[in-house]
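can u do me a favor
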């Protein structure tokens, strides 16, 4: 099985082969195969950046990264006994070492932690509100589509949290035509409320869509970042 997985991942060096052997011994054949399939899907789609963010990881690199994000401290020690345990692995343990400041967040830490937490995510209802100037408007039979962008300013984020990107996030908004027609026109500054998510049937998988349940003139001029 080690040779089979190594061939799929394109790994030939002794070090990675030893890691694959210990992963199978620690996690079992079934979970290892599941992680291989996840790695193939991630690598084929968005990929995972290297720690310095300069390039995407190889398929083998994605696999080892997902493994690290899915194991606990003891399992990590069994698989990589010579390595220092990453902070995102310690986060799952009650024995996490004490630190005098915030953890050294990095892209790799957050991605691995996010992958692990996604498996045990809680259920919540998410509603959002967007206030500001809308973009170009496209009208269809019963639908209005427009796009808005929003940037989280870094000085608005509490200390200790990872810094938001400098780029703005774009939201594509689906608005019922009837609600849109009820707005006074022209009306550039509006308030859109609704539910956000991914519309994988109609949009790319990196586009956030807002299904609007309400739209009205903004109460006051919104500050545009």
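np, heres the sequence
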């Amino acid at each position: 099985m080690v040779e089979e997985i190594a061939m799929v991942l394109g790994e030939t060096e002794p070090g990675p082969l030893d890691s694959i052997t210990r992963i199978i011994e620690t996690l079992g054949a079934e979970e290892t195969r599941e992680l291989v399939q996840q790695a193939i899907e991630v690598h084929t789609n968005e990929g995972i950046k290297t720690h310095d963010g300069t390039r995407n990881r190889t398929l083998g690199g994605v696999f080892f990264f997902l493994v690290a994000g899915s194991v606990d401290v003891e399992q990590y020690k069994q698989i990589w006994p010579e390595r220092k345990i990453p902070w995102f692995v310690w986060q799952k343990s009650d024995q996490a070492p004490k630190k005098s400041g915030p953890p050294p967040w990095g892209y790799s830490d957050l991605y691995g932690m996010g992958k692990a937490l996604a498996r045990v995510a809680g259920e919540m209802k998410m509603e959002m509100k967007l206030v500001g100037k809308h973009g170009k408007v496209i009208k269809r039979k019963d639908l209005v589509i427009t796009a808005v962008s929003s940037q989280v300013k870094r000085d608005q984020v509490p200390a200790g949290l990872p810094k938001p990107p400098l780029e703005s996030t774009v939201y594509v908004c689906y608005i019922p035509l009837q609600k849109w027609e009820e707005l006074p026109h022209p009306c550039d500054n509006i308030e859109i409320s609704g539910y956000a998510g991914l519309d994988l049937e109609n949009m790319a998988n990196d586009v956030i869509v807002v299904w609007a349940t309400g739209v009205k003139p903004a109460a006051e001029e919104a500050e545009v970042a």
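The radius of gyration is 23 Å. hope that helps!!
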